[in-house]
Amino acid sequence: DVICVLPGSTDTVIAASTIAMDVAGVTVLGFGTGANRPTINYTTATTATCVVSVANCTMINLLFTGGVDALVSPLNVTGADFKLYGCEYRDVTGQCTDFLLTSAGATRMHVKNLRYDGAAAAGTNAAIAIVGGDDITIEDVWMDGNFTVGGIDVRTTATTDLLVKNVCFRTR
Question: Which of 95, 104, 129, 151 is 20 to 30 A from 122 via CA?
């Protein structure tokens, strides 16, 4: 299934799992450019999340915005074969701790053409935090933020066959 999201639309995420991609094989395709792309705005709670818990899900051309300070992990991926293409994250209020957080189940994840615009204030660990998973590819990514750990943080659980290419990091 493909869910087409029109330019200028906004979905507000106010709590954990407000958006749950829990049907395998779904693609969310955003239309529009720049700030007119479909927006997923995280507000109200630091635990507001979009959870991808099943395999073969894809998100294309979406704008994610953090509207609450110390947002923990707004995009949480535990399903295999997740694709994030042509998306952007912007801190709007405060900063997020980790934008994209995985578990060991996020094997074969592919992130391409992601732009991460983090806040200048301290508080962000990483744009992408990888906790396990195999055969992950991160490419053509631009990250700007005040990272405590780094733009990409591989933590706690072993990750094998991680490919990172054409990534630009800027720390404020």
Answer: 104
CA–CA gap between residue 69 and residue 46 (Å, rounded): 7
**Start-end of H helices in the chain:** none
pTM across the whole model: 0.96
pLDDT, one tens digit per residue, over 2-35 is: 999 999 999 999 999 999 999 999 999 999 999 9
Return d(Cα 144, Cα 21) in angstroms, integer.
27
Q: What is the pLDDT of residues 64-119, one digit of tens each?
A: 999 899 999 999 999 999 999 999 999 998 889 999 999 999 999 999 999 999 99
Distance of CA 33 to the CA centre of its chain: 18
Beta bridge partners, 117, equal 90, 144
153 vs 24, 93, 100, 127, 139, CA distance in Å?
Answer: 27, 23, 10, 8, 15
